[in-house]
Amino acid sequence: MAVTPFHDPSRGALRIAGFMSGSGTNLRRILEHQEALRLARGRAPYEVAVIFSDTADSNAPAIGKDHDVPVVIRDLRGYCRQRGKPRRDMAVRAQYDAETLTALRPFGVQAAAFAGYMSIASPVLVGGLLSVNVHPADLSIRMEGARKYKGDHAVADALRAGETHLASSTHIVEPEVDEGRILLVSPPVDVVVGEGLSIEKDLEAIAAANQDRLKEAGDWVIFPATLQLIAEGRFARDEAGTVHFDGRPAPDGVRYDARLVTPTANG
Fold first, then answer.
1. Which residues contact 165 (CB under 8 A, 6 or more apart)?
2. Measuring CA to CA, how many Å separate 173 from each of 37, 128, 259?
3. DSSP class of residue 219?
4. Is 89 left (phi over 0), alpha (psi -120 to 50) or beta?
5. Which tens digit of pLDDT belongs to each residue from 106-161?
6. Which helix (H) or strand (E) is 147 found in, with range?
7. Which of the two residues, 87 and 262, has the higher pLDDT score?
8. CA distance linking residue 236 with residue 7, whole number of Å
9. Sign of torsion over alpha carbons 150, 28, 263, 70
10. Is the dihedral of CA 24, 90, 227, 141 positive or negative?
11. Are strands 130-135 and 248-249 parallel, antiparallel or unpaired?
12. Mean predicted confidence (pLDDT) in 58-86
């Protein structure tokens, strides 16, 4: 069965729009990895061509200034308020996303990195750009055929279920939340329960602390790596939509190994 790379590197660097809503720490790591690749190779396989924020008070302007990247801000709350519609109205969201794609067109972007982007993407946006997200759970873990740890409380759910290790996953953004095809899964991070605390009584605090650790050891590692591997043409899809990596089917994603993305002059 024929496979098609998500990006053909012979056509140049993958141009990315960094989507964010808040602090943008994931996006900073993506930009830092881009610069490390540029210094090591002379050019990076991907380029964050523009930063997009759906909130007027995010760190997008500061990150754009620090990295000399243009910024587009379209406050979704104000957009909905002007139209007298709730933010959850997906018809309005589709209109907003269509206008966002128009606003980004001059930057020639081919993909979107959802780096702390807190709005649900409509099919208009998902269909308009190859979109990649990172999720604080190993999405390959299933229970009765369904992904076990989805949603905003994935870390707490994993702790409640007795998991002793956590992992992050990058995945393609698709219409159903956290159901996109898996790309990379981070190395496991040990669950740490602070002295005097218990999962039963202090779940919220323990989950927050472990999610912070997972962000540093998981999200910040695999998100830039995923974009690099896509840009290098190593991730592909077959006619059925199954993800392949380096020519082999990878329906449950690829386990991260630093050797996959070492920014050497030759690789």
1. 188, 189, 190, 191
2. 25, 11, 26
3. I
4. beta
5. 999 999 999 999 998 999 999 999 999 999 999 999 999 999 999 999 999 999 99
6. strand 146-147
7. 87
8. 8
9. positive
10. positive
11. unpaired
12. 97
